[in-house]
Amino acid sequence: MADVDTLDLLSKLTAEGAPLGDVITLAASLSGGGQVALADQAYKVWIRFNAEHPQLCVALFNRSILQAVLGDNAGAAASLEQAITLNGDFMPAYVNLGGLQERAGLHEPAVATWEAGANRAVVINGVGVGYAFTCLKQIARLLGDMHQPARAELALQRAADIDPNAMDVIGQLVANRLTQCKWPAVQPTERVPREKMLEGVNPLSIAAYTDDPLLQLAAANRFIEREAKTTPEQVRADRRDAPIDLTGRRPRIGYISSDLRDHAVGYLMAELFEVHDKSKVEVFAYYCGPESSDGLNTRIRAGVEHFTDIRPMTDDEAVQRIVDDGIDILVDVNGHTRDARTAVFARRPAPILVNWLGYPGSMGSDYHHYIIGDPWVIPPEMELYYSEAVRRIPCYQPNDSRRKVEETNPTRTEVGLPEDAFVFCCFNGPQKITPHVFDRWMEILKRTPGSVLWLLDSVPETNARLREAAEARGVDRTRLVFAQKLQNSHHLARYRLADLFLDTTPYGAHTTASDALWMAVPVLTWSGRCFASRVCGSLVRSAGLPELVVDSAEAYVEKAVEIGVDREKAKALRATLEANRDTCVLFDMDLLAGKLEELYGEMIAEHQAGHRPRPNLANLSAYMEIGLSLDRDEREMQAEPDLHELYRQQLARRDTVKAIPADGRLWEGGAS
């Protein structure tokens, strides 16, 4: 019940002309004390008796926040709409109203509200421009979720024009263009020059843009510094030097991922959790993705001993939970991907931190100690591309040998394919299709009569763009066929209709390749230097077809044409995969789990001996500058014969201006 002072103040609010500050003070006091409903009533009373107040819109806005807390979203929206009617330049109301509309499922009205806010002719000052910028970011995010990338791109372009230093916006803009197959993906503007645009690109998009692992490493480090920088005060539970005493217990292995659900990573990891030897390791899973109760999420929950949803936890709360669990090895299964909790790793909640599976490349951090690869993905001569110490298992990618495949056998006619064609396919996401890859595909089609290219369906505008690009290269647009997206078991079943999977580069097939190989569809790939461009080669070799891993663009085209014009050869490759499926390394999850467990034991032994690896981050700002200057859309870095020499030349030039210390990577130090 309200005290006497509160009742007295409430009575004063009924008096005409009561100061707005009084109700703000009262409402803050009431809501701070848990009396949110009473605070809402205070605003309601004041608004009723001050209908002509010049700052009525502020009171309505404040009340809308309380109404939303009380669950009255319709009332909150009505308050915001009234505030906008009273003062069309009151920008905070647009931001919040759009958010309420989005949560109510009114997506187009939300976009319209934010557009109205972004288009207001407000006084040009930092606050007004800041609200317009926020509206544009909200528009882009929601339209992206609505699979309307072209409209999202327009909002991102406007936001980048407002703030060319907003790296997150610039990164989204480039990623958006990659997804639409808009070439060149990096399109500089008067306000955002090319190098600034590349600097803002998320490391995952850099992997799709160029086969330059030195730039990828430097970009990952820059991203870490920008997005997951941690202060000394936040590292309150630092366990990097915590002893690991295994007396009377098993090593505790924790996996953090946002993708333990109906997601590519979820499909890869489901069986691993089931076959981990529970007598050797105690397995913890920390889930940080969207709320999920799908079949895979349920299966993974059952497959681990301990499953904790850290999604609603702050980073500090998640760290404390991991500390309380006494984790010895914490595995980052997100890396630089969506919904990652990198800041948790930055707080060092476990003695050993490992980068594995979720992100195809180095984290570029000073706290990830190891990266798990395999002999093909990271051969010894390529370890310099990683800040982490490299450790290997026979094939780095797990798979699910228990995956469900529908028993139905669709015909080619049913999925829009010619019955008698040679079907090349690629079910990688459109963001992986570069103009260089597309040029090669069109050459293959032209040299393989009676063939088609079967691609994963995208938005209609992107499909049309690819068909127009085919015609511009002299290929009939009808030879590109798009496969509608299906539930995974049905998608796997239709793989049988393809003859040869053509991989992309520099970001190649991962789960899509193992799906194809599981369904006995041979996969042709060109391995480059970076992790993302070598994964597919590892999978194909582990499935028993090393002859389909080539070392040049020319060899890629020639091998595809060779198989495309000789259908018996394609059948023989399929037969090899069918014969190998139950025995090959790629699908041997007991082998993978056993090797992982051995590797974890070796990491613990190194820690106990005081030999924890120290990440190498030397000179990465210089490598970043050089990479930004070297990479161009028209230049395919994977085809460069001597990438290292290009960098050494540029390092030497910089060293003449300001001495660069030796870094144990490419630079051994200057002459003086």
Question: Can you put this structure into words, describing what you see?
Answer:
Helix content is 49%, strand content 8%. The strands form two sheets. Strands 3-2-1-4-5-6-7 form a seven-stranded parallel beta sheet, covered by helices on one side. With 672 residues, it is α/β, with parallel strands linked by helices. α5 (73-86) runs antiparallel to α6 (91-103), α6 (91-103) runs parallel beside α8 (126-145) and α18 runs parallel beside α23. It contains 27 helices and 13 strands. α19 links the parallel β9 and β10. The protein starts with a helix and ends in a 15-residue tail after the last helix. The protein is globular.
**Number of distinct helices:** 27
Question: What is the rounded Rg?
Answer: 28 Å
> In angstroms, what separates the terminal alpha carbons?
79 Å
Q: Give the % helix.
A: 40-55%
Classify the secondary structure makeup into a structural class. alpha/beta
Give the overall average pLDDT. Answer: 94
The order of strands across the largest sheet is 3-2-1-4-5-6-7
Largest sheet: 7 strands, parallel
Overall, the morphology is globular
Q: Pick out the low-confidence regions.
A: none
How much of the sequence is in beta strands?
Answer: 5-15%
For the secondary structure, the number of strands is: 13
In short:
This protein has 672 residues and is an alpha/beta fold. Helix content is 49%, strand content 8%.
Helices and strands in order:
Layout: H1 4-13, H2 20-32, H3 36-49, H4 56-69, H5 73-86, H6 91-103, H7 107-118, H8 126-145, H9 149-162, H10 167-179, H11 194-199, H12 203-209, H13 213-227, E1 252-257, H14 264-275, E2 282-287, H15 295-303, E3 306-309, H16 315-325, E4 329-332, H17 342-346, E5 352-355, E6 370-373, E7 389-392, E8 422-426, H18 435-447, E9 451-456, H19 460-472, E10 480-483, H20 488-494, E11 500-502, H21 511-518, E12 523-526, H22 531-542, E13 549-550, H23 553-564, H24 567-580, H25 589-608, H26 620-630, H27 643-657
Parallel strand pairs: 1-2, 1-4, 2-3, 4-5, 5-6, 6-7, 8-9, 8-11, 9-10, 11-12, 12-13
